[in-house]
Amino acid sequence: MTAKIVEVKLRLAFTGRGDETVEAEVRAGGSRGRAAAPAGASAGKHEVRHLPPGGAAEAIRSFDPSRMIGIDASDPRAVTAALRSIDGTRDYSRIGGATAYAVSVAALEAASIELGRPMYELIGLYGEPRIPLPLGNVLGGGKHAGGGAPDVQEFLVFPLDPGNIVDAVRANLRVHTLVRKGIERRDPSFPAGKGDEGAWAPRMGTIDALEVVSEAAAAASDELGVHIGLGLDVAASTIWSPSDGAYVYGREGRRLDPEGQISFMEELADRYGLKYIEDPLQEDDFEGFAEITRWAKGRGVLIVGDDLLVTSSSRLERAASMGAAAGAILKVNQAGSLGEAMDFARACRDRGYSIVASHRSGDTWDSHLAHVAVGTGAVMMKSGVVGGERMSKHMELLRIAEAHPGIGIARLRI
Ligand SMILES: O=C(O)[C@@H](CO)OP(=O)(O)O
Ligand SMILES: [Mg+2]
């Protein structure tokens, strides 16, 4: 049985934050797949272009859907080749990465329905399929929140040893609730504001935020009997000032040169027992990443590259040759198409990098991320904790687990 594409339709759509984006409907045989692309706010400068300068309308205008007809929807590489030839630029600046994302994901969904096989199985880059650990931000700031919130973008939690995915999701939710209580104890007038991904966005600095989150995680651990790990996504490119050669924590008056930033990260990791640090340094500092990765390896801390790697196989090769980072964020829309993200996942596997399949801060209601995570053998799925566009992905993990009772849950090995 084949799943040849017979029709592709695009429409303008909006993410949960209101960013303009593209939704695609792809028909393969008698089945239809649909996907809408997410959008980042702290996007790395080496990512493909989300949309051309004229926005989603121009992306849709410049896309010729007839050139997709007859392509095998179950073959992400063939879909990528067609998208690349329609676009003709290096970074999808003509049709937009949003179009590449939407068409490639919708095509695989259509194939999955047509062939009666789950999407993750068609991605198929795992040994034994496993449910990834959910990683979510319970407190945050940076580009995802308003003034006064911490300069560090995300304070993250994840269960280390959950019995199943329901316990795992519940653990993160409990920490999220307790974080609010912890903030209110320190500031009774906290107006309960949240950032783009549903994390609490209080007026406090990095250290206070870590105190609140580690107290909440310890209390949730005791209550639920699940060990909870702590992490940060520093999104350090957003606080890096090239003209000063320094990381500028504007809200807390801290200024650190690259060596100072590495020492600060090491101090926080030691003091709070962090197990995960994403983008501790700016996106072009491969040497700095290699240094902190060497430090972290013996200590059980996973250093993860997001803006550093931008789901690009060539940047991963460079990082691997230097030992920069041990984990890799995989965001399909950073690469553009699903086929390109799958090439990246293969490279991660060959080079021994742990994959963290991730949402974007401006995400859509789609749940495909769960299939991308399971299908690429990701150890974690990073998708916030609360909010409809976050929970849709967790719910799909629950459904995958329900359909495959024997499926195990991933364990983080650093
Ligand atoms: O930095 C990140 O990891 C992401 C998602 O949390 O943010 P954005 O989508 O804004 O790049
Ligand atoms: Mg990040």
TrEMBL record:
Residue ranges, annotated region (Disordered) = 25-49
Catalytic site positions: E197, K331
Could you tell me which pathway this protein works in?
A: Carbohydrate degradation; glycolysis; pyruvate from D-glyceraldehyde 3-phosphate: step 4/5
Q: Keyword Disulfide bond: yes or no?
A: no
Free-text remark on how the cofactor is bound = Mg(2+) is required for catalysis and for stabilizing the dimer.
| Residues annotated as binding substrate | H144, E154, E278, D306, S358, H359, R360, S361, K382
Q: Where in the cell is it found?
A: Cytoplasm; Secreted; Cell surface
InterPro entries linked to this entry = Enolase, Enolase-like_C_sf, Enolase-like_N, Enolase_C, Enolase_N
Which processes are annotated in GO (biological process)?
Answer: glycolytic process
Binding site residues for (2R)-2-phosphoglycerate = Q153, K331, R360, S361, K382
Question: Got a GO cellular component term for this one?
Answer: extracellular region
SMART domains named among the record's database cross-references:
Enolase_C (SM01192), Enolase_N (SM01193)
* Name the UniProt record assigns to this protein: Enolase
Protein's organism: Conexivisphaera calida
